[in-house]
């Protein structure tokens, strides 16, 4: 899997101060997307074990609330497979850290068993996530004051 960037000490993508991983690859292709370059699955750099270790080590800081994963699209099947072991490691080592996941797909439609993006990894991956922000970005529903989402159709789902 490739990633576009990692932001350490991010305050825009979830509660508290977070480490945010922007994965590459997206088939949702929202009109007005702020991160179009990450639609390409080969954009950025390869997410190597060295990078994953650095990302996980960043969670050792007591002021870091957790990890946020966005993109691109984390719930593309290729990305689900790569993210699952990372999420497992985080939950094994950091019981108080939260994982936020942003997806343009709908949790209760696209990601359920039989949904168009459900894979053998989906259920376990989502079981490790604390907050899902779901739904495509719709530029006509964009509002400046929305917290942790770009358009009013997107839902913040605490699990």
How is this structure best described in words?
The structure is a single chain. With 159 residues, the protein is of the alpha/beta class. It has one domain (2-158): Aldolase class I (TIM Barrel, Alpha-Beta Barrel). It has helices at 49-57, 77-93, 122-127; strands spanning 2-10, 17-23, 45-46, 64-70, 98-103, 131-134, 155-158. Strand 4 (64-70), helix 2 and strand 5 (98-103) form a beta-alpha-beta unit.
Question: Which CATH architecture would you pick?
Answer: Alpha-Beta Barrel
Measured by DSSP, the beta-strand proportion falls in: 15-25%
Task: Indicate the CATH topology.
Answer: TIM Barrel
What spatial form do the alpha-carbon principal axes imply?
globular
- The CATH class assignment is Alpha Beta
Distinct helical segment count: 3
Mean pLDDT: 96
Separation of termini?
26 Å
What is the helix fraction of residues, given as a range?
10-25%
Name given to the CATH homologous superfamily: Aldolase class I
Strand order of the largest sheet: 3-1-2-4-5-6-7
Order of helices and strands: EEEHEHEHEE
Number of strands: 7
